[in-house]
Request: fold
Amino acid sequence: MFKTGFERPEKCFQCGRCTSSCTISKILVDYRPNRIVGLVRHGFSEGVLDKIVWNCARCMKCVEYCPQKVAPADLISNLQYRAASRGSAFPEAYVEMMKNLSETSLAFRQVDVTDRDFEVCNRMSMGLPPLTARVKAKFFEIISKISKGEI
Amino acid sequence: MTFSAPFVYWGCFASTKQYCVEVSTRSLLRALGTNARELEGWSCCGHPLKGVNPKLWLYLASRNLSLAGEGKLLTVCNGCYLSLKEAQHLIRSNDEAASWVQRVLSMEGLEYREPEVLHAVEFFNNELKGREVARPLKDLRLGAHYGCHSIRGSFKGFDKATNPGMIEDILVMLGAEAVREYPGRLDCCGATLMAVDPDIGFALASGKITQSREAGLDGLVTPCPYCFEMLDSRQDTLAELKGTPSIPVLLLQQAIGLALAIDRRGLGLNFNMSPVGQILKDRE
Reply:
């Protein structure tokens, strides 16, 4: 598997700027990006971070403030993938998005929305063009193969 | 510099749920005479699924890029913007990723292409320059909420990550008073957490709204459909759960459209759940 992010945990010198800028560390005291980077760097990450990595807000402040361009958020995203591919449970909302994607090519289902005048609106009632038949069958074949790890 | 005739990439959230984004953007593109075109064959950008399967993200992002060829690709969602910009950056800097992309895209009969990815903020900033607005947003102190993915990431974006100013520049062009500094200006709205731990998502949105209100803003303006939903559409829930005060929240396109005298429905203002009446009164 090639690298799909810009993480460089080996460059971390534990200054802690990622954690001091982290949105989630202010709410969850056990969530500390510098500790996650440190565990990965020293080879102790496998399995122990499977649950906590999903708490990342993806605010990217750690990426912005890291003086070493370690990109902790990218590393955390990669840990999410490693956890998911090991069969560890991931948030239900993502299961739903995967299902939507494989059926409609979009991550979400089209919904009717009630506006502030209590009128029920959808694309047609607002004069928006329909969202049908945008992708070819090959698209669904490719995402199925990627999901199964065949490509 | 001209951004004319871009392909518009709507993305999932704006086209399936947060309809005011698509409605207001279409009205603006018409009113400004931009010759925007639909991107044929588009799909999800991959952003929400990057953690679950990064290859899926890379395929989805790169196929949407390729559909725009060498043209301009206008995004109306921060998530799509980050996804497409990061994919471009990765493909440029990682040969293995680039050859995987070429291989998978060829299965779909596509070839990898590099369009210029534009964020709605930079696009409308450019389109509005030198243009007189019909109905200036006078006597309004507005704050910008950029949203994380318009400014932060490993790619080079349209504005400075630690002190951006382009939305405020637009607000000034619209005749409003732009508050360029207020506590929490660049903070996260909490949207990503709604899929994982809504309590934390609500805490972040509540903090953001409370700080904006305490700073004396008349309203918040955001370019992102996800941030818009967190800050606008959940205010009733936040008031109930946390006693959060209320504040009018507008999508950037709605703020621009108001100044251009586009009607309320043409801007999807019937979908705002925050007290936008405070801003709209005497302006229609």
Q: What stands out?
A: The CA atoms of residues 2 and 62 of chain A lie 23 Å apart. The first helix of chain A runs from residue 17 to 21.
